[in-house]
């Protein structure tokens, strides 16, 4: 994985336009030696690198499988679809501008997010950029426009009913509609969304067979035709990843909420498998739906008492070391060599700015040792050096 610290002209212009914001965000000052930060050490940044350029990365898709060279931090765009509560267009665009102005160059969305609203807002924002960032969206749900969506978790979203359809024809149509909303001719990643027994229950086998016979062959054709550079899964369970990988190869897996400070089960199987096969892993939901960042949500629902107690214990250790809990939550997954990126969500400029600061926050090795000593993270879990 190669990170180019030299910024583009546009990124430099943005830096000088927003340098006061940079100084506020990166509290250790813009001249702090990036080589001495956990992120700088991980990516082998030479001494003298400046933290103000930490996210100005060079990303391409190369190699036989179209493997991604991805930035360590991206932006998950579910909140742009009014997840949990509504935000205005102005708030959505401010969050996106905060990301772009600080060099964040990867955005993940899906038709399901606000029933097309997230993609539409992102597309409007992209139209004003000189350079297109890395884009990821998903297939597997169609939208019945004009129909009542019912309860989906998205508030005041677009009037369209989402429904699952993993057939080849549906996936081709879903991808075409996503490109239209985003205002682009191609994306970098197309991911099969929410496949698995956790989502589909006793209908899992039916959906799985449809995806294997329809969705994945359709994605392979879309990749061959240049509509996407990489194909994979976007899910929040490990079992479906292992089931799919037993039959076919993938370029990338976006795994939400399953490798975090609260959960490290993928150490046993999925992460070693992906590492051995060269499959990039992106961690979505690094805050476990928000509970690790102070929000009252865990795994898209209420926070169970046992989880709240564990979060409190993690927070106490972080406080002892003068490290924000969200900083530890963001940096922890990146220590594993199979993991390329984390993509926390943001519903405001302030949240996006905080995410950037948390990724750059120095964390002493003793913090991770204390978490392991307290049994809060697994003894075999790698941590940022």
Poorly predicted sequence stretches spanning 5 or more consecutive residues: 1-39, 41-68
Category from helices, strands and their pairing: alpha/beta
Could you state the order of secondary-structure elements as H and E? HHHEEEHEHEEEHEHHEHEHEHHEHH
Task: Give the overall shape.
Answer: globular
What's the rounded overall pLDDT mean?
86
Through-space gap between termini: 17 Å
Strand content: 5-15%
Strand order across the largest sheet: 3-4-5-8-9-10-11-12
Largest sheet properties: 8 strands, parallel
Number of helices: 14
According to DSSP, the number of beta strands is 12
What is the helix fraction of residues, given as a range?
25-40%
Considering the chains and any ligands shown, give keywords for the structure.
alpha/beta, two-stranded antiparallel ribbon, eight-stranded parallel beta sheet
């Amino acid at each position: 994985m190669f990170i180019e610290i030299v910024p583009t002209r546009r990124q430099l212009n943005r830096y000088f336009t927003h340098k006061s914001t940079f100084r506020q965000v990166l509290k250790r000052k813009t001249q702090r030696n990036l080589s001495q930060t956990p992120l700088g050490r991980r990516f082998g940044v030479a001494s003298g690198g400046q933290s103000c350029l930490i996210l100005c990365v060079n990303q391409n898709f190369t190699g036989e499988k179209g493997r991604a060279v991805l930035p360590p931090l991206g932006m998950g765009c579910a909140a742009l679809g009014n997840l949990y509560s509504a935000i205005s267009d102005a708030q959505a665009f401010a969050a996106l501008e905060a990301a772009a102005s600080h060099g964040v160059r990867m955005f993940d969305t899906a038709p399901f997010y606000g029933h097309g609203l997230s993609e539409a807002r992102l597309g409007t924002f992209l139209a004003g950029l000189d350079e297109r960032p890395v884009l990821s969206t998903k297939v597997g749900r169609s939208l019945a426009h004009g129909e009542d969506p019912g309860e989906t978790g998205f508030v005041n979203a677009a009037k369209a009913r989402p429904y699952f359809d993993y057939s080849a024809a549906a996936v081709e149509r879903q991808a075409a509609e996503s490109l239209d909303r985003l205002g682009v001719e191609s994306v970098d990643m197309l991911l099969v969304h929410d496949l698995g027994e956790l989502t589909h229950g006793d209908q899992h086998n039916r959906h799985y067979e449809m995806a294997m016979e329809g969705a994945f062959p359709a994605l392979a054709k879309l990749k061959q035709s240049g509509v996407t550079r990489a194909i994979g899964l976007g899910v929040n369970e490990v079992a479906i990843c292992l089931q799919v990988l037993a039959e076919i190869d993938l370029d990338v897996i976006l795994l939400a909420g399953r490798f975090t400070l609260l959960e490290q089960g993928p150490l046993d199987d999925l992460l070693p498998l992906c590492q051995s096969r060269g499959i990039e892993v992106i961690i979505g939901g690094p805050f476990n739906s928000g509970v690790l960042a102070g929000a009252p949500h865990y795994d898209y629902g209420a926070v169970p008492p046992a989880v709240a107690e564990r979060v409190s214990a993690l927070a106490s250790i972080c406080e002892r070391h003068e490290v924000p809990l969200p900083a530890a939550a963001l940096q922890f997954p990146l220590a594993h060599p199979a993991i390329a990126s984390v993509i926390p969500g943001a519903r405001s400029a302030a949240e996006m700015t905080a995410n950037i600061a948390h990724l750059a926050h120095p964390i002493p090795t003793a913090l991770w040792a204390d978490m392991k000593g307290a049994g809060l993270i697994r003894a075999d879990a790698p941590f940022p050096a």
